[in-house]
Design a protein that fits this description.
Elements (H helix, E strand, L loop, with lengths): L1 H23 L39 H17 L7 E3 H11 L4 H19 L5 E3 H29 L5 H22 L7 E3 H11 L7 H15 L5 E3 H9 L1 H12 L9 H17 L5 E3 H10 L6 H14 L9 E3 H29 L6 H18 L11 H12 L3 H18 L8 H7 L3 H16 L4 H18 L8 E4 L15 H19 L5 E3 H25 L3 H5 L20 H17 L20 H21 L1 E3 L2 E4 L1 H10 L1 H4 L9 H14 L10 E2 H25 L16 H15 L7 H9 L2 H15 L11 H21 L10 H19 L9 H11 L5 H8 L11 H13 L1
Antiparallel strand pairs: 1-2, 3-4, 5-6, 7-8, 9-10, 10-11
Helix pairs in contact: 1-5, 2-5, 3-4, 4-7, 5-6, 6-10, 11-14, 12-13, 13-16, 14-15, 15-19, 16-17, 19-20, 20-22, 22-25, 25-29, 26-28, 28-37, 29-30, 29-33, 32-33, 32-37, 33-37, 34-35, 35-37
Length: 924
């Protein structure tokens, strides 16, 4: 039982403290009277009967009657027994009294008296065999007070154990009992000058003489360490002044002692309760520390004593790490200084206050009962005000190495890496708010951040609050824009060439990324340094403030575009629902325009009109789009096209060149860009095994087979936007197909990267695509073709598309994720071709007039593939028609015959014909 443990501790340590007080505070410091005779009165008898056994219960039961009896008998003894000194009693004389009244225990009691007289002689400079009668009287009074208060405390223990009083009532009785005892002790301690004793020697001698005071080496060391912490100075010496200090602080010390011993009874079953418990007592704990320094060895000992056995080295390393990185690294080797302790207290309070405030915010947000925003604003404002009050930047170290400390702490104690990454990711944002390095914090930076705490906290809270509920896209864009404006207001205005952050530190943001998206995020992080340097300039290793401001501005521009687009689409409902390209838009005004400059609205309107008048495909919420003659616009697809257009413009400006005022990429520029984008493409399965043809294939597919393709031998922004949409659709359909194939084909790969045999995937491909996945509505022309075509033709078609789509055309190699992405992409390119050119009769064939229109797009590609000289370019259309008709490249002789044959008849193209053309353009 815990109350038994505490009672035992009291029975052991209170006598020790009492003895130490007697020895060091002059209870035995009296002047002897010389030249007197002593004699004994054997006829002496008292007026009461002493029960020696009752004194064993002095800390358990009320025995004040016995103490009074003992005092009465001692007075009688002192009065009637002739002594050498009228004001003192010798050891020999006192032994007679003890033998008369304690015959059964006289030997043990005399052992204690021997120690008492010995210490008195050595430290008080008094006779070694005399003690004052006045000192004995004070001792009796103190003993009576100790009995009354200790007995009351003990009774309270029992009542608490029996469920008769609360923990709070027990705590109150405990504190008041010890405080009353200490107060009385202070009254009876003589006012003489302070004496002192050797603490460890005295403790060992006490321990050897009394069973109740049996102390191990660890107990003695604990007392010495606590003495050093509380009073400082020499731990081996205890003075009367220090005892007086201890007694005067008994109310605080007893409160802390009780809370430590009864910690588990407080039912602190949550982190919040434990944090509040510690925070409420933190000032009291540090108030008791009077030492100017705390040795690492003492810290290690205390940790071991309270249950840290086997972790001494870890505790020592942590203390050293804290000293190096968080405290005053240059002061007092081997110990924490007074300033270190003040800093440690400050850091602890800041952490606990912050933890409790944000826990309260999270609890409020999670509550089923709505909580008014004013409550959260009050809490966060109060938190910011507290931190501003308690933190004095001038008292902080020159550099706080929080990042390094956390790394060493995590490594030593094997802490959860996610928690450490979270802390480091927060530190990564620090330079953007106050400047400096992400790994450290200086007093100047703290001084900068304190005034911003409230606004930063409220912005973070608003994000939490807003994310709690469902919102429309428009509301998200408006909120994001407002949040960015608030963030911009608290950003650090660093010099252009000041470092904002190191690109390698971006990996700390992994903690915010879900596992499903981790590979893509890692790809972004890996590719960011190179792409950043290309678009915004500077070195790959760092982002300067001028570059950071440019990145922030681009992000804000994108959010502005989305917000303006949502509002502006509402002004043109008929145009938005039109099935055709909209070539012109009348100006209509929205009230949100007033928040932007005229130049910004003008530029936005130009981009907005461009999407209406040029783009045919719009992604929906499922990452799919309609490959058909009629245009079906979606709000999401419209916004994505605007974003793709803006981002593509940035990339083309950085990687490409200008032609006729338009940015575009040629094959060499595409090759450079895609190699730098490799880290981003690999996680999505979009990187190729045939890097030598990657750029050419991307150029041809973008420049020839999209609705905006112009066949000029370069990729322009519109072609790139449509190509990006097609890739997204391909990846989405691939992911759905891979899941569907798991139920019908044996997995030849791994769980992470499945693959399926070609002879299994082919027969089921279009059935899965159109029936199970129900994607026919997105590709109505293809669906119509499949319903009418012969099965052999369909099988031939899928095999032909597979042949030119895959990196390696080998039927023995199972179809993996990338293979399906390429296959679906090729099918979509063919669909885009039919949607664009099958306009006359929409019969799923390209007749001669439709092929004529298509030829002007494919012409330059044909010239390139056929390697025609300038005077041979007149044969390009014949080559084109030959490839469509014969589904192969012509030899010189066959081309001559075909070109000059007036009876070759009309040539039409089905999907397989266009597929073959695509094959030769890509593979040759």
């Amino acid at each position: 039982m815990r109350f038994h443990k505490l009672r035992n501790l009291l029975s052991k340590f209170l006598p020790i403290i009492g003895c130490l007080g007697l020895l060091s505070c002059g209870f035995v410091n009296d002047k002897p009277v010389e030249n007197t005779d002593s004699y004994q009165n054997s006829e002496l008898s008292g007026g009461c009967v002493i029960d020696p056994d009752s004194y064993a219960l002095i800390f358990e039961s009320d025995i004040h009657k016995q103490i009074e009896c003992l005092e009465y008998n001692f007075e009688q003894f002192s009065r009637y027994v002739k002594r050498a000194d009228a004001d003192a009693i010798s050891k020999k004389e006192l032994s007679v009294f003890i033998e008369d009244f304690f015959p059964d225990n006289s030997h043990k009691i005399m052992d204690g008296l021997s120690l008492l007289f010995k210490v008195n002689f050595i430290f008080i400079d008094d006779s070694q065999d005399k003690i004052s009668t006045e000192g004995m009287k004070r001792l009796f009074k103190l003993l009576a007070s100790a009995n009354i208060n200790a007995a009351q405390i003990n009774q309270s223990f029992k009542r608490y154990h029996n469920g008769e009083i609360s923990l709070e009532a027990l705590r109150s009785d405990f504190i008041s009992g010890l405080t009353n005892l200490a107060s009385y002790a202070l009254q009876v301690i003589p006012e003489s000058k302070s004496s002192q004793i050797n603490l460890s020697e005295t403790l060992r001698e006490l321990s050897s003489k009394f069973d109740k005071m049996d102390l191990s080496h660890e107990h003695i060391q604990l007392i010495e360490v606590l003495k050093s912490l509380i009073f400082g100075k020499d731990r081996s010496i205890l003075s009367c002044d220090e005892i007086k200090q201890l007694l005067s602080r008994m109310e605080d010390i007893s409160a802390l002692a009780f809370d430590v011993l009864y910690y588990k009874d407080y039912n602190l079953d949550t982190q919040q309760k434990r944090a509040s418990f510690i925070l409420e007592r933190l000032d009291l704990v540090f108030k008791q520390i009077g030492s100017e320094k705390v040795n690492y060895e003492d810290i290690v000992f205390l940790s071991r004593y309270i249950g840290g056995q086997g972790k001494e080295n870890l505790v020592y390393e942590t203390a050293l790490s804290a000293k190096r990185h968080l405290l005053t690294a240059k002061s007092i080797d081997g110990a924490l200084s007074y300033k270190d302790l003040k800093l440690l207290k400050l850091y602890t309070k800041v952490y606990l206050e912050s933890f409790l405030t944000w826990s309260k915010v999270d609890q409020g947000l999670a509550s089923s009962v709505p909580v008014a925003r004013e409550f959260f604003e009050t809490e966060l404002s109060s938190w910011a005000a507290k931190l501003n009050t308690m933190i004095d930047p001038s008292q902080l170290p020159e550099e706080i190495g929080l990042d390094r400390f956390l790394s060493e702490l995590s490594e030593s104690w094997s802490l959860d890496k996610k928690d450490m990454q979270l802390a480091k990711s927060i530190m990564l944002l620090k330079p953007q708010m106050v400047g400096g390095k992400a790994a450290t914090l200086s007093p100047l930076e703290v001084d900068r951040i304190l005034p911003k705490l409230k606004d930063m906290a409220l912005s973070a809270f608003d994000v939490k609050l807003f994310a709690k509920e469902e919102h429309s896209a428009r509301q998200w864009y408006e909120f994001s824009l407002n949040t960015l404006n608030k963030i911009q207001a608290v950003l650090h205005h660093g010099d252009d060439f000041e470092i904002a952050f190191l690109t390698k530190n971006l990996s700390s943001l992994k903690v915010f990324v879900k596992e499903d998206n981790m590979s893509f995020f890692e790809g972004v992080i890996a590719g960011f340094p190179t792409i950043k340097a290309k678009i915004f300039g500077g070195h790959q290793e760092v982002v300067l403030y001028k570059e950071f401001r440019a990145i922030f501005s681009e992000i804000k521009t994108l959010i502005e575009t989305l917000y303006l687009s949502e509002n502006t689409m509402d002004l043109y409902p008929n145009e938005f629902n039109s099935k055709k390209l909209v070539k012109s838009l009348a100006y209509r005004h929205h009230e949100s325009y007033k928040n932007f400059s005229k130049t910004r609205i003008f530029n936005f309107k130009n981009d907005f009109k461009h999407v209406f008048s040029k783009y045919h495909y719009f992604l929906d919420e499922n990452n799919l789009q309609y490959y058909q003659t009629d245009i079906i616009r979606t709000r999401r697809g419209f916004n994505l096209n605007l974003i793709f257009k803006h981002i593509t413009g940035l990339l083309f400006k950085a990687y490409g060149h200008q032609e006729d005022g338009q940015y575009m990429l040629n094959i060499e520029e595409i090759d450079t860009m895609m190699k730098q984008f490799k880290p981003l493409l690999e996680p999505m399965g979009l990187w190729t095994k045939k890097i030598e043809t990657f750029a050419r294939n991307m150029l041809l597919l973008s420049d020839l087979f999209q609705s905006r393709s112009n066949g000029n031998g370069s990729i322009d922004i519109d072609e790139a936007v449509e190509y990006l949409s097609m890739v997204i659709v391909s990846v989405e359909i691939q992911s759905q197909l891979m899941l569907a194939y798991e139920g019908i084909c044996e997995n030849r790969g791994t769980d992470k990267d499945p693959s399926f045999a070609t002879d299994c995937y082919r027969p089921a491909f279009f059935k899965l695509l159109m029936n199970e996945l129900k994607l026919g509505r997105y590709m109505p022309k293809l669906n119509q073709y499949l319903n009418k075509a012969e099965p052999t033709e369909v099988a031939q078609f899928i095999r032909a598309v597979e042949g030119f789509a895959r990196d390696i055309d080998d039927e023995s190699i199972p179809m993996a994720k990338r293979d399906l992405v390429l296959l679906v992409g090729a099918l979509l390119n063919i669909e885009s071709t039919f949607v664009r050119f099958d306009q006359v009769d929409e019969d799923n064939k390209l007749d001669p007039r439709e092929l004529d229109a298509a030829f002007y797009v494919y012409r330059k590609g044909i010239v390139t593939v056929a390697e025609l000289s300038e005077d041979q370019e007149r044969y390009s259309k014949s080559i084109f028609l030959y490839m469509i008709d014969k589904m192969q490249m012509p030899s010189p002789s066959s081309l001559f015959i075909f070109h000059n044959n007036p009876y070759r008849g009309n040539i039409e193209a089905k999907r397989i014909n266009i597929g073959t053309l695509l094959y030769y353009l890509v593979q040759e």
